[in-house]
């Protein structure tokens, strides 16, 4: 019975640790039952020590630990709860903008969604979602409507970008996100939203860009750190890599935000700790 238990336990060991354990097992089969029991006791202590050390290092949030955890080597604590994140809240954002083939200039934001994700539970606590009326190219192109699902009636009569930005600020204040003691950061699928689109349109319109828009987490980079591969096709590749069902329709801003939140929750559940990827402006 003891030998059967030992063989069963060895099937869950990996790499060099497994090889060493198998080698030791062969040697021990020729020893007395007493020596075998002593060896098992020592191995149990070593295994516990390994898990304790790994659990402590995971709390430090190293990139290496994040990679290991994302592939299933999470500590015992992470198996039952999310690891401590660096932020109280993640603000998931995904713009949709005017577009055509060839591309029109300037592009203008037409959908402005934000999900407030609790950094401890990774659950959505609040939603900001508004459509925005474009002013330079006021008529949406057929290509834009087909891509995003946004029709002309959804943007006609909606607030301007300046008005939407003012409402975002009001929402941030209401949600307690402007409190200096509350750590929050935006999360986007790529750098385009906050590195190119928003600052570009604000510059064109002569509008200031709030400081909270100037740092973010690029989910593509976070995913590549965790999984070891770059998601060339964005959300579709990330969902596939994590065996997740895609939510809603692609290129719907609010649906893309829900997919981002779901991917983040899955990575966090595997022990990944999210870090800022943007460089300070």
TrEMBL record:
The gene is ERI3. PANTHER family: 3'-5' EXONUCLEASE ERI1-RELATED, 3'-5' EXORIBONUCLEASE 1-RELATED. Its cofactor is Mg(2+). The keyword Nuclease applies. The keyword Mitochondrion does not apply. One of its GO terms (molecular function) is nucleic acid binding. Interacts with PRNP. This is ERI1 exoribonuclease 3. The lineage of its organism: Eukaryota, Metazoa, Chordata, Craniata, Vertebrata. Gene3D superfamilies: Ribonuclease H-like superfamily/Ribonuclease H (3.30.420.10). Keywords: Exonuclease, Hydrolase, Magnesium, Metal-binding, Nuclease. Residues 89-273 form the Exonuclease domain.
């Amino acid at each position: 019975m003891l030998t059967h238990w030992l063989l069963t336990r060895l099937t869950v060991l990996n790499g060099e640790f497994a090889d060493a354990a198998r080698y030791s097992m062969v040697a021990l089969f020729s020893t007395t039952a007493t020596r075998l029991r002593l060896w098992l006791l020592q191995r149990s202590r070593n295994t516990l020590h390994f898990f304790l050390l790994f659990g402590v290092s995971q709390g430090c949030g190293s990139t290496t630990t994040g990679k290991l955890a994302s592939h299933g080597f999470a500590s015992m604590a992470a198996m039952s709860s999310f690891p401590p994140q660096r932020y109280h809240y993640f603000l998931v954002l995904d713009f949709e903008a005017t577009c055509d083939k060839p591309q029109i200039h300037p592009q203008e934001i037409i959908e402005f969604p934000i999900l407030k994700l609790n950094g401890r539970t990774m659950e959505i606590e609040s939603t900001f979602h508004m459509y925005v009326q474009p002013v330079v190219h006021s008529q949406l192109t057929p290509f834009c409507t087909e891509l995003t699902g946004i029709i002309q009636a959804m943007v006609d009569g909606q607030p301007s970008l300046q008005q939407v930005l003012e409402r975002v600020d009001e929402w941030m204040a209401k949600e307690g996100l402007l409190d200096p003691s509350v750590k929050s950061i935006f999360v986007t699928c790529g750098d385009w939203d906050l590195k190119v689109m928003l600052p570009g349109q604000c510059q064109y319109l002569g509008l200031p860009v709030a400081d909270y828009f100037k740092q973010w987490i690029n989910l593509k980079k976070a995913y590549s750190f965790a999984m070891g591969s770059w998601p060339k096709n964005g959300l579709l590749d990330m969902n596939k890599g994590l065996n997740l069902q895609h939510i809603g329709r692609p290129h719907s801003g609010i649906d893309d935000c829900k997919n981002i939140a779901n991917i983040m929750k899955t990575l966090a559940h595997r022990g990944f700790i999210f870090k800022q990827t943007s460089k300070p402006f």
